[in-house]
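Hey, quick one: can you model this chain's 3D structure?
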Amino acid sequence: MKFLRFLISLLVLVAVLAVILVIASFSPLVQTWAARMALAHRPGIHGTLDSVSAGFGEVDVTDLHLEVDGAVLTLPSLEAKVPLASSVWNRAVVVRGLVAEGWTLDLSGAALPGAAPASGATISGSGAGPEGAQTQRISAETVERVVRRILRAWELPCRVSLDGVDLEGNVLFAGAPGRLPGHVHVVIRGGGMGGGREGVFTFESAVTSATLPVDGLAANGTLEVTMESPRQVSRIDVRGDLSANGALLWGDTPLTVEFAAVRGGGGESCTLNLSRGSRRLASAMARFPGPPGRLDGTWTVELQDADLTPFAGGHPLPALALTGEGKFDAAAPFHRVHATGRLSALTDHWGAVAAPLDRLGALKLDAVLEVDATRRSIHVARGELAVSPSSTPGGHGRRVAVLRSLQAFDFNGQTGEVKLSNPAGDLMSLAIERAPLSRLSNLLGPLRFDGSLSAGDFALRAVNGTLTLRPKSPLTASGVSVSVGNRVLAAGLDLSVLASAEYSAQGWQVQYGPLAISRAGHRVFGAGGKVTAAAGADQTVELSGNWNADFDALTASLGPAGAGLIRGRAASGDFTVKLGDSTNVEATVAMVGHDPTRRAGANISADFYPDGEISFLVPVTVTTGASVSDVSLEGTRTVGDNGSVFEVKLTGQQVALSDLRVLAAPLVAVGGAQTKAIGGRDQAPFWGTWAGHVNVAFDHVSTGDRDFTDVEGAVDLDPVSLHWARGRAKLPQKAVVLTEGSVAFDPGAKFPYQLKASVNLNLVDAATWFGPPQTGLDPAIEGRFSVAQTFTGQGGNLDDLIAFATDDLQLTSASTGGITRLLRPGAVQVSKEVSKPVTDTLDTTGSFLVGVLFGVKKDFGGEGGVAVNKTAQAVLDFADQLSEFNYDQFTITARRGYDRSLHLVKWEVIADNEHLVGTGAITYVEGLPLSQQPLSLDFHLGTRGGIADLMATAGLLSQQKDSLGYALLNQPIHFGGTLERIDASAWHDLLARAATQKPAGTKSAK
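Sure thing. Here's the predicted structure for all 1006 residues.
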């Protein structure tokens, strides 16, 4: 009985304890304690928990914090409607509802699973700048494991039913170094997933990250899961729209991503499609028909440049239309994937990459590729790339170039190593078939090329880690023409060049030469050299070589357009160009004229900096016979808001003006001057794009007819005008020349060019203008003068401006006391027979008097003297007094017209008793100095005082007086010859006739 009582009591106690334990198990305190104990004993997981409450059919979790491998989950609250008893009893996961809001999954410090740097492939993604670049390494094993898990996902470990899900939270991922993490806001809602049912879930996400090229990305779509049974998934469909906001957009049409995975018919298949609106961009389809893990599939692509714009980082892209298709297959464990395919691309507007490339025009690119990709390398079994003008229908028959692999090879992306199947054979071939040179136009400034590259074959070989591109035949071109605007510079040229290249881990090198340009069998230009670059971060590219040109053959190739364009017979030179952070150019040029004594040479040194600044020093030597001109051009170019500005110093010791003109032509060409349009009208000034300031300083300048010393001045240039000021030079005997002026250019004016300039000379000696005196004679004019000269002109081009410019000249005596001998009779030899004493014949006396006038010594009244009449004596005295006299004023006013002749508007000499006023011209003769050009001058002579009385006695006085009241000679006086050698024969004749006039009532001797 006691035992029974004890047993009953024990059972009651056990029952009470059982009831207490059951009640305790539903207590949040106990459940929380148990959950915390489970977290504490879970290796690799660090977590905290505020509370857990699990009742019949419902579980509540608050403030859960978990950290696994750097990934952190923060869950403020979780509500799950789960019938625990039936789930445990039936071994099923049945979720009636799942609600979690405000959670955060921080992956910014998490390590990717399976990371294996030693065997991984590098994937680079660039952010908003160089600092936005980030690198992640994903091992091939990780990719393999993910694929296997996807293939096993069709079979679930237990029965699953998911009726309702409402999740909203944030995911953080690593950003660029020094920047905040990226942020994804995620919202997932839906349900209905279960055996024989189709679950539908909607998702919304918004991504913001400093590494993205846009302000944000948004993805919205649906996930559909179809289950044949509670443990088998038969189909998965995902559809989402991806749109971008910010600086780069896909426009109004988002990018749509569709993924479908289907199981059935003895295998699995999946498809991936990318589209925008009704246009499909890319698709891939994979099938798993055979053993587990084996797959094969196809891919297609149809992209345009607008589709790639959001991924270009803000850089403009060429116009692009890309299409392609191919196949791929692989077998587990996916160590090798085999792929084949064809790609075809229509491209245009290459100027988006580099402005000069825009002249390449529209191109069609066709590629064929067969590769096997492994974890570490790519095996290329076949590859071919063909380039053709896209204007050709189908792109066939007019291929420009073809690059083709000649053998299979392996490329290791980690080490850069290339392994050949036949190391002794060629790797690739490059054939240039018919490349139109017009597509290379403007790659060298304003030059345009026409013609075609007709042949050129190259072979690429890899030996001992060195890639070598060698020519199998010369690269040739025929029928080449070069033009600028509407002007053809050269035509009918033929080109031939041999070029080779090498590349290795130490760097690369390109050699060219001999390069030959010829016309009609005559060589015009030749060159040779190389381009080298050493490997390394601070890679410097160096170009070097030499060249030579036959100007006679080149001028012949230019035709009429080349007449006078190039002076000289031949030229040669060498150069070295170093391209790095800055560019340095060192070069020499030597030119030889048709006259062997005419030569020119230059040493060029220039540095080009990334900000556009240029510094240069160019000493030039021009030799003409015994004359040598040394000119140095030194300066800088800077780039500002208003374009390029030059600061130049032009210096020299001995300089000939004609040599400066020769040097100006290449400077104008460098400046980019535009040629004349139809009608001979310049579209831009002859100084082209030159703008800035030029200082000139020469020790000695020769113009051909006079020499200047201490020549200096300043020139300012801008796009519409050229000004020079402070021009200063010295002539012999300390005469100073001052000059200033301008040339304005207005393309809209009737005559684009307008010239205004002035030249002033102080205290210039008369010999500067009238030349040295004749041997044994005093100068015809003595004194010092001031000269004022103004130039004006207009024209449609530079030639017209020079040809039609006019100048006005004013020559004025600087002080009184000058001497003129313009009216001296001259000196001729007279025979003794003419000068012997004769007393009784007028004819003999007349001959004697002429001799006296022309310089025979007078000896009247003495022994053997000759008596002359009153008239003859007056002529003799008149001529003697006018042969030399001092003047008070001497003025010459002249104008030079379009014919380049100097028209003497007024030549005036004023003295106490003499007044000369004349007009005339000095006719221009090319190549002669002013003092040696033909002179024609007519004077009116006025006298007063005793000279006027003698003129009256001699019968030479008229009844008129000039404007100053001087009595006028009864006839004008003509002078010819030149300023240097004035011909006064007409004046001589006038005096001779007057002296030999017979007195009234006298008869001639018989």
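One thing worth noting: The first helix runs from residue 2 to 25.
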